[in-house]
Amino acid sequence: MDLGIQKVEVFDAGHFVRVEWEDGNKSCYPCVWLRDNCQCPHCFLHSARARKLLFEDLDVNIVVKEVALADRKKISITWPDEHASEYEAEWLKKRCFSEEARAEMREDLFLPEHQYWGSELQLPKMPFEEIMSNDESAYKWLCTLKKVGIVLLTGAATTQGELIKLGNRIGFLRLTFYGPTWQVQDKADANNVAYTTGKLCFHTDYPVLQHPPGVQLLHCIKQTAAGGESEVVDGFHVANKLKKQNPQAYQILSSTTVDYTDVGVDYCDFAVQCKQRIIDVDSRGQAVRINYNNATRDTVFDIPVEKVRSFYKALKEFDDLLNSTEHKFTYKLKPGDIVTFDNWRVLHGRQSYQSGSEVTRHLEGAYADWDVVMSRLRILRKKVLKRD
């Protein structure tokens, strides 16, 4: 983005600065924003990349006293109190307020693009050791995880502890009431339906938490000979289908708060309670998180009695779409496989299998937050793409 500045001027009684670039395009910057983002050592702590200027000291009606084009690579502004600010051309260009520039910045910072899928999913696969040792491979893994929502890592050791290594590769794992990692196997007096041999219907993990884990990691250590197949479905894709097919059902599921509960003892004793919408949406009504776990949906339902049946009908339609052969993808983990997936988007389930005198199926599980994953992705991208 090595673009110089052709001209700079003030307009709207000094409330805006307009920059004309060498390619003829123009960018407008509100003066209050420019003063708020002064990059001088008095206003900005560069070692922390954090603003020092106190908001209480910001004049929201501020205007420019004087603006000058120091050279084609920066502009300088003098404010009414004689404070001086300088802004580099590249810095300004990246922060242009045009829709195109803002969309480009959103893409750069958050990778919002989704590749939707159904039963035709070609499950992305990558070698575990490659992820651990190669930055380009790790970057590709996290980019694919963000875009597709699921990636299978192959060739890990068939012992506990591989997820701790993977967590360290990202940054750190998410601690929950089930521990830093947890063992999915048939257990007597199971404190979670996952710790049985029965079928698990499509669900996201932990909607009982106010901030459910963003990414789930499941490492296959031992696999049963018969049964135990894993199933996944793209919740965003299905939510879009529901919105088109039955807008009223979508509106009900994206506006009704459902009670979730989880009580027991594991890493420590716990009594968790939360309200979630089955489909969380953004300001545009687009699904951004699915919160659906039939096992931990509470018997308490805090809505008016006359709305209960319409909610159940809407949820039934959504659940039927999740379970349709058109949308679900079935696969079977092999020992050494680690499936990594977006727990806010991808719902997962399991087919039943037979119990035995010994443990016949053993997965180790863990969680990571999207904040941690995206942090590592941005750091890896800077290294791999050699960006400033």
UniProtKB/TrEMBL annotation:
Record GO biological process? carnitine biosynthetic process
Q: Which residues form the Gamma-butyrobetaine hydroxylase-like N-terminal domain?
A: 14-92
Cofactor dependence is on: Fe(2+); L-ascorbate
Does the keyword field hold Oxidoreductase? yes
The name this protein goes by in its record: gamma-butyrobetaine dioxygenase
Q: Which UniProt keywords apply?
A: Carnitine biosynthesis, Dioxygenase, Iron, Metal-binding, Oxidoreductase
Q: Which family does it belong to?
A: Belongs to the gamma-BBH/TMLD family.
